[in-house]
Amino acid sequence: MKRISIDPVTRLEGHGKIDIFLNEEGEVANAYLQIPELRGFERFCLGRPAEEMPNITARICGVCPEAHHMAATKALDDLFHVDPPPAAKKLRELFYSIFFATDHTTHFYALGGPDFVVGPTAPPAQRNILGVVQKVGMEIAGKVLKMRRDGHHLIEMIGGRKVHPNWGLPGGVSRGITEEQRREIERLGRDAVEFALFSLKLFEDVVLKNSDYVKLILGDAYVHRTYNMGTVDANNCVNFYDGKIRVVGPDGKEHAKYDARDYRDYVAERVEPWSYLKFPYLKKVGWKGFVDGVDSGVYKATPLSRLNAADGMATPLAQAEYERFYETLGGKPVHHTLATHWARLIELLYATERWVELANDPEITSKEYRVVPTQKPTEGVGCVEAPRGTLTHHYVTDERGILTKVNLIVGTTNNNAPISMSVKKAAQSVIRKGQQVTEGLLNMVEMAFRAYDPCFGCATHNLPGQMPLEITIRDPQGQVVQRLAQFVP
């Protein structure tokens, strides 16, 4: 059996490899997405004071530290039995909306966008952010850089640092904002709304008006009919910061709707010996393996999943784009994985609109931004929507507030099973008997996971039952003398 390796995979956060196995006829027999890195946060946080978690877990990732910071802070609210004042909740959501818009900008233009703007089979030296700049021009590149610069400037203003914020506390936040800061946040937010609208127009012109790209998006190679998960508000509209977690089936019908604290009643986790990532699945459906359909407990938690799980968007411009999205793609739910890029831009627009709404809230500059906890800590769960999916932090402490148990289910962990399925199906679709396997074809396999915007650094926290290991021994001339392997497929 022949093996083709894509090592490392590119344009993602973290490290990974794809091994594709061909049978004797040259067809794809199987494909594995392997994650060789281990972070171990669930273990080395044990024995530490719980109040350190917003700062510790932010170090899991330099791309989305704000998501871990916020989930950890909300978990401390629950752990210390304290309800933050309204101003604190609004400040947190404002901060989080700014982060979301900034992060989605990064993925679309630097990670996912090159496959469409430059082309899926373009030379690798061009298929990157520099290739995007060359294709769309310096003026557009300037808009992207301004959006990211503004976002990180405001994240530092509100959260204390551009990366790894140190702002969230149980019961609120450590500081508020002034009226002068509020005006700047609003002004830059209005610029961000225009940038989001511009990005949607760019997507329409470059992708939706290109028949080859539309055919690629709608093709069967990138389709999986799974359950979809996302957080919704009281009106079942998408919300990133707070609400209930809603799961809909492959047919779009509601399967579950629950509070974050009840996640263990709905989500279970399993391990496989060939990956450091856990594989969550819907507990009440059960694990049936790496298959989709209503009888399989596999679910997705992506921007597309959030749109599928919701009944709409809570802001007017995003709602209009939401309606156009489903009208164009034939109604809900949409199961085309590559349509996630379009869904991400709709969320970018929603995040910027919500940013401006909150910046104009009269309560946003209130000095009442924290309630000091007075009860003994016990157990707490905090949940937000990370850009890559539903993020859950679960802490248990002793009576002194020292952590005795930590469980993290991050966005990419939710998507581990569907990513594995997408990689295999894409490989089977683009690699055929007698066909030369080119770098462009292998990139089309990578596109299957890239749509999920995976962050493997965030996701790899637990050891599987066995550790995959491969060692190659070479002589002084560089010739292979021996290969040793254990638990490597």
General shape: globular
The number of helices is 16
The radius of gyration over CA amounts to: 22 Å
Main sheet strand line-up: 8-7-6-11
Question: What is the distance, rounded to the nearest whole angstrom, between the alpha carbons of the first and last residues?
Answer: 12 Å
Residues in β-strands, percent: 15-25%
Could you give the count of β-strands? 16
- Structural class designation: alpha+beta
Task: Compute the average pLDDT.
Answer: 91
Could you characterize what this model shows?
It contains 16 helices and 16 strands. With 489 residues, the chain is an alpha+beta fold. The protein has a four-stranded mixed beta sheet, with helices on one face. The chain has a three-stranded antiparallel beta sheet with strand order 1-2-3, covered by helices on one side. A three-stranded antiparallel beta sheet has the order 12-13-14. β13 and β14 form a beta hairpin. α7 packs antiparallel against α8, α8 runs antiparallel to α12 (340-359) and α11 runs antiparallel to α12. The longest helix has 30 residues, at 179-208. The radius of gyration is 22 Å and the shape is globular. It starts with a strand and ends with a strand. Mean pLDDT is 91; it is low at 463-468.
